[in-house]
Amino acid sequence: MDSGSLSPKAKKNINSRFVINALLLLTLAFFVFLMARITLAYIPYNTDVGFLRIKQDYVDIDLWRNAFFVHVYMSIWALLAGFTQFSTKLRSKNPKLHRGLGYIYAADVLFITGPAGLLMGFYANGGIPSKIAFVTLAVGWITFTAIAVVKAKQGDYNAHRDFMIRSYALTLSALTLRAWKWSINNSVEIPPMDVYRAVAWLGWVPNILLAEFIIWRYKYQANQRRLVAREMRQAASGGRPDDPAVPGLASGKA
Questions:
Q1: Predicted TM-score (pTM) of this structure
Q2: Alpha carbon separation from 132 to 57, 66, 127, 140, 165 (Å, rounded)
Q3: pLDDT digits (tens, 9 = 90+) for 181-193
Q4: Are 149 and 106 in contact (CB under 8 A)?
Q5: Contact 196, 187 (CB under 8 A)
Q6: Quick one: pLDDT at residue 26?
């Protein structure tokens, strides 16, 4: 369809989506840049910088230390590969690249960063509340990603999309946790360990709630499109719901 034939409302919607997508992309790029700066501080194998300064009791534990460096070095690739999975242009124009990047994302989460994050969760600062938060996050991350892969293999692409949304919402906890921490530290006076306990949950719970809203919105819009299509078919058949030209209406199926 030529852009000149679009209604003003349609053009406005397209422009709005473009602006929103551009802002989201810029926001992600900014936080990925910050993540890259954080990651660079640990290269090649620095154990007395950043987060590790408050984890000196665990640095000498080989299993924990290796899990930490694996998680730090590899999580940024999950952020980048996962973001590409929601590009409709990439999915339609280059499905092989879409699948390839999807496999990279899934392999990273399922076999590298997810297990590393799970192990780290058992050593989290802040006591039992923080440990529960980070272990639950890791288990949910791995589980949602695994289900997304299974659904794609089964050809259930709507369910695949839904679980990828949930999975990537948890991937973004690496960014939102730091955003919450920065916001709290720059707005109120709270003991550092209390901030840590709070962001252990705030880093991912709002993300998953937003993901569920996005999934609900997708389903609501799809249902609205089905209703409109049904009404159009019924109008085309003269309003007879049992007309053969309107399949499924007589039986109540969409």
A1: 0.77
A2: 20, 21, 9, 12, 22
A3: 889 988 888 888 8
A4: yes
A5: no
A6: 77
